[in-house]
Design a protein that fits this description.
Elements lengths: L1 H17 L3 H32 L22 H6 L9 H14 L1 H10 L12 H5 L3 E3 L2 H5 L19 E4 L5 E2 L1 H8 L17 H25 L7
Antiparallel strand pairs: 1-2, 2-3
Helix pairs in contact: 1-2, 1-4, 2-4
């Protein structure tokens, strides 16, 4: 249970930064308060249990009966729910419901959180060596028969004909070499699917590798939250 509310508190705080409506912010602030109260209550219960196990000076009427210590104060959320105001009934359940909804929407929330991070560096042109080694295919009748009717180069939009030279990218998309060269002189990706080629910029390649590792960690964290394996931070 502490892990559930720890994870929920983090999600509530992040979500509060993302929403703009005053009513949404107020509702999330209420959920944040509830999560903090729950964590405080669990912590107090843990401390009381530890004190009991360590033989604290608690007095018993006799074995099997309740203690005669003063009754602990009710948590604030329980006091509110007992005052008869329908708006305050099941506040904890409401916070839990919002938390479960946020967990279900992690795929939407996490990208929005990531958008607030540092901007990605501008992609440099594709490596000249990689471009030079791209295969060039000569269009034949047999080749055209495998394509859709009126297949064309996606850059110049001219229909392919026999004996055309087509340069093939690793993603299998093909273009006329004179059409593709100006694009790869400024970009490192396929004009259609954005599949990236290697570049000659070592700093950019190192950044891509770090981002790939970070993305795997983010996916692992998101999966852990979905499966209930909450992490303490």
């Amino acid at each position: 249970m502490p892990g559930f509310w720890n994870a929920g508190l983090g999600l509530f705080v992040e979500a509060e930064h993302l929403v703009s409506g005053s009513s949404e912010k107020k509702h999330l602030q209420s959920c944040i308060s509830q999560a903090r109260e729950q964590l405080t209550e669990v912590q107090n219960e843990s401390q009381n249990t530890t004190s009991t196990e360590n033989g604290s000076n608690r007095r018993f009427l006799f074995e099997g009966h309740l203690t005669v210590d003063p009754e602990p104060e009710q948590p604030a959320w329980l006091e509110l729910s007992s005052q008869g105001d329908p708006a305050n009934v099941n506040t904890t359940e409401g916070a839990r419901s919002v938390l479960e909804e946020l967990v279900a929407r992690l795929d939407d929330i996490i990208p929005e959180m990531l958008d607030d991070g540092p901007a990605a560096p501008r992609a440099p042109p594709a490596s000249k060596q990689v471009v030079a080694n791209l295969p060039v295919i000569t269009v034949t009748d047999e080749f055209l028969m495998k394509l859709v009717a009126d297949a064309e180069c996606a850059i110049c939009r001219e229909v392919l004909v026999v004996d055309d030279k087509m340069q093939e990218l690793p993603c299998k998309h093909m273009f006329h070499p004179p059409c593709l060269k100006p694009w790869l002189d400024e970009h490192n990706s396929c004009p259609i699917c954005r599949h990236e080629l290697l570049t000659d910029d070592h700093h950019y390649e190192n950044w891509k590798e770090r981002e790939k590792e970070a993305e795997e960690e983010r996916k692992g964290a998101a999966n852990a939250v979905r499966e209930g394996e909450y992490m303490y931070v």
